[in-house]
Amino acid sequence: MRRHVTIELKSPGEIDAMREAGRVVARCLDAVRAASAPGVTLKELDTAAHDVMRAHGATPAFLDYHPHFAPSPYPGVICSSVNDAVVHAIPGDVALAEGDLVSIDIGAFLDGWCGDAAISYVVGDADPADLALIETTERALYAGIAAARPGNTLGDIGAAVAGVARPAGYGMLADHGGHGVGRAMHEQPHVPNEGRPGKGLKLRPGLVIAIEPMLHAGGGDDYRHDPDGWTLRTADGSRAAHAEHTIAITPDGPRILTEA
Question: Mind listing the pLDDT tens digit for each residue in 94-152?
Fold first, then answer.
């Protein structure tokens, strides 16, 4: 039996409202990156993001989020994944060190609408291999965004993302991808990071989705869970990078909602 999936299309006015939520997320990411330095703790970065949200009348999307797979509600405002942590790492008292590869994922609600985005960067002096990983992750994201046009499909997005990541020799986090965004942080549809051109859901104006490549330097896709039940790490211990934007499909093409 085929399961019915409801996908909500947003009006132009609703997309404008989501743009304001996305702008807050972008400002949070800018603040976290600016605050990142050797000796700064991940909890301090969490506070920096929360301060920006409060200043703009927004609320955290991640804090107290409790999906079915998690043992407990998420305790942070941001996800702060360092080095071999790919996604969902809890911000605690660990201090950043020179050369750490940091991935920050932030979601925020403003006036009932959600924005969700992620960036990766290196603290201080960077290993060229880390910079190449981050650059490829960002190129994969923007390739996916470029494919997000009316008449294309989710398969076209996935093929575009993988078409950048795989030839470069990187792995991609298994079982994870992007998602719909709207009144809830996670809505239908699931947005895979691999796909076949022309296959899958056809993209229509009003669809709002998050596209988020998560690349592994070691070339494998496998991961392991930390005891906290949230943090996902590369199975081979290699470094990882994550990049994400919330975008809207419009008659004129993709509109990025989580830029500054």
Answer: 999 999 999 999 999 999 999 999 999 999 999 999 999 999 999 999 999 999 999 99
- pLDDT of 30 > 90? The answer is yes
Three-state secondary structure call for residue 216: strand
- 212: pLDDT strictly greater than 50: yes
What value does the mean pLDDT of the chain take? 97
- Match 């709002």 to its residue by tokens: 208
Count other C-beta atoms under 10 Å from residue 147's C-beta: 23
Q: Which two tokens stand for residue 183?
A: 């009144």
**Entry pTM:** 0.97
Task: Return the CA Rg of the chain.
Answer: 17
- Provide CB contacts within 8 A for 108, sequence distance 6+: 21, 24, 25, 28, 53, 58, 59, 60, 61, 114, 115
Phi, psi torsion values for 59, nearest 5 degrees: -125, 150
Which contacts of 226-229 are long-range, i.e. CB under 8 A and separated by 24 or more positions?
226/85, 226/89, 228/71, 228/90, 229/69, 229/70, 229/71, 229/72
Q: Collapsing DSSP states into helix, strand and coil, what is residue 165?
A: helix
- Both structure tokens of 147: 């494919």
- Judge if the upstream peptide bond of residue 189 is cis by omega within 30 degrees of 0: yes
At 180, is the secondary structure helix, strand, or coil? strand
DSSP state of 230: S
